[in-house]
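Question: Send over one sample?
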Amino acid sequence: MYQLKVKSTFSAAHAVRLKNGCMEPLHGHNWKLTVCIASAALDECAMVVDFEELKKLTNDLILNKLDHSDLNAIPAFKGNATCEAVAKWIYDELESPVAKMRDGINLESVTLWEAQDCCVTYSTKNN
């Protein structure tokens, strides 16, 4: 199985509702995103896909919506704009378009770094 990964960055603000019901103050992060796709087979050019094709898809569907935004203002995150919620939303937004890139390609995981030492990985695979 081949795994192909692309990394991207975006800046966005959020406020997270804590267990006690209080909201953190609105604050920003320079988020780092890693999108991982997989395929057992390569195309006629001996690639899973061109890196630029996956980066463009990620830019068009994800970064253009999230960069320089207040995540709490996006309807998908009205419940709570946690790193976990954002990672799952990104996965859900990319899953079908990635599968349409070529037969046999699947979205493996999305890893979202909120800070240099804090990240969440979302995948539907049991690893």
In short: The chain has a mean pLDDT of 95. Residues 11-16+48-127 form a domain with the Tetrahydropterin Synthase; Chain A fold (CATH 3.30.479.10).
